[in-house]
């Protein structure tokens, strides 16, 4: 189990460039299975979860060539479907949440898709019903081996259908879209997720020959085609990483420039940080954050009541940033209620912040009230363990702002979502050592 030692209390400065988007990569990489032609993908993040998926594709028989940093070509012209029934696949697929999105493309092109119950972050209940209900509507037969926790769907030929999703699941929508593009006839998906990463997937599929309309809305209409061709695609920058660096700059009173953020795809993220009192300046496609020497003050509602920041399906705020926002609020002027609606365990890292001296009241599994210190009292260094990717980075940000030297164990969780994070932080002045 790896460890970070962080000497906090130092101002940082300089430029940092966000990696390619993890959540987009997990969708896009699965889509290469939809064609036998070559697909080139650029700006792929070099992180554990994405590398695991690339290895899974290779084990499936996909021909993969690395062209340069973050750039690969994929050719799925000789897929080994027997691998899906192997013990090795049952082991490897279980360790990655994103492996669920292999099922849609496999089902669409080969008539069958299997997956062990996926793992991933322990952030609460994350059901798979939306995925499989969509496949069943398209005509697939579902089976589940309870002893091995192994899911499967099979179909001679998928047929288009109308469906109203019971939740606007991003991965569920992506999986159903990838299945529907090769289905016979028209598929209509209402209450579809419309995150920028899902839009990216749809645009890529359309370049490959798919016929998807309504991209960017919650109503997608897909006219099935017989086959898809190759294409080239570039990932968006990771919006969660961008939000992390905004929070880091504020907490350490640092002057930072975040490069090439694809500002128009950030949605409410700049606005929400603005409500916390953080100054952001748009410079071309960069975000400039001045040093907040006098701190930052949370806005109240116009009637004077306490601000609530909550997650919601896009264009609402992504739930992946709420833990960052909670940490940033610990040094604000004012109070805020953080409402994590989508996952019931994501706020359980608050006990580590309490150990560091933060003023946080955990109201229930979904809500926490934060009373800011206004930098009049710094957080204190401590030893802690990273429970998941986002909480781990939130604790890292807290440690970089704290007085003294903190230790974070289980940093493999952080490495699952952030590329060479310690090297990149040292480049802007952070005192962080990996062991």
From TrEMBL:
Which GO cellular component does the record give, naming just one? cytoplasm
Which SUPFAM superfamilies is this protein grouped with? Answer: EPT/RTPC-like (SSF55205)
Key words, A-Z? Cell cycle, Cell division, Cell shape, Cell wall biogenesis/degradation, Cytoplasm, Peptidoglycan synthesis, Transferase
Catalysed reaction, written as an equation: phosphoenolpyruvate + UDP-N-acetyl-alpha-D-glucosamine = UDP-N-acetyl-3-O-(1-carboxyvinyl)-alpha-D-glucosamine + phosphate
> Where along this sequence does the record place binding of UDP-N-acetyl-alpha-D-glucosamine?
97, 320, 342
The answer to whether the entry has keyword Transport is: no
Q: Does the keyword Disulfide bond apply?
A: no
What GO terms in the biological process aspect are recorded for it? cell division; cell wall organization; peptidoglycan biosynthetic process; regulation of cell shape; UDP-N-acetylgalactosamine biosynthetic process
Residues recorded as binding phosphoenolpyruvate, renumbered to this chain, are 22-23
Q: Where is the active site?
A: 121 (proton donor)
Q: What is its EC number?
A: 2.5.1.7
Q: Which residues form the Enolpyruvate transferase domain?
A: 7-425
Q: Which HAMAP family match?
A: MurA (MF_00111)
> What family does the Swiss-Prot or TrEMBL record give for this protein?
Belongs to the EPSP synthase family. MurA subfamily.
What name does the UniProt record give this protein? UDP-N-acetylglucosamine 1-carboxyvinyltransferase
Q: Which organism is it from?
A: Maribacter hydrothermalis
Q: Which gene encodes it?
A: murA
